[in-house]
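Step 1: inspect the first sequence and its tokens.
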Amino acid sequence: MSTRTMIPNGLAQRAEPETFRARSISASLAVKDLQKSLAWYRDKIGFFVGEKFEHKGKLNAVTLKAGDICILLSQDEGGTGWDRVKGAGFTLQLTTAQDIDGLAEAIRLRGGTLETEAGQKAGTRVLRLRDPDGFRIVISPAH
């Protein structure tokens, strides 16, 4: 069993056996209308298509990339009902070295809508968006 000890600055110190270390994270979102979501992420936000996945000639998933970030969009087939709320309590938090206000303006110029204007959060400029299914996205500067 792993244990952690606190060091003077209040941060947890790794214990033995070594704790889990991840290298990256990717999101997988089941969406109601794959073509609509694909267009939003690609055409409004600026992601590019990595791979497309088809089954019997029908597009059923696509990977989208933006820098090191990868998001998989898959077509929700409604197996657990169409009325469930998507994105509740879930936010994709992305960081970038790009200018937040410049990104906001580019999204608006491509016809995208911001959930709120680029604003401050704890002294940092952030950009808030909501995709067609209600998934929230916050973009902030990389530190």
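Step 2: inspect the second sequence and its tokens, then contrast the two.
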Amino acid sequence: MTREYLVVYGKGKRNWGGYAPDVQGCISTGDSLEHMREMLREALEFHFDGMAEDGDPPPPAVATEVDFGPDDWEGVEYYVIEKLKVKLPSKAKLPSRKIDAKRMAVSA
């Protein structure tokens, strides 16, 4: 199974950097745009495999836009924003979870 995540790539003086807004803490770099795509896809898939091993599902792909502040990515020449198709861990790796609605509580 695959999922498409919104991704942001920034072209710097020496290389590219990238991340997916829906997947905090997972970033990568590459020598070219195509290399950046490959490296970020690999980083995301590795990150999701680790999450599955810990019993956590991959985050949903919900981002549809990116807001940049005045100091974001200083030194970036330009950005590329697109959807990146990423392979998710097989269902066999994901734990089955049963939710007992009677035991759930909402705290404020």
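Step 3: confirm your contrast with the notes below.
Helices lie at 33-53. Confidence is low (pLDDT under 50) at residues 92-97, 99-108.
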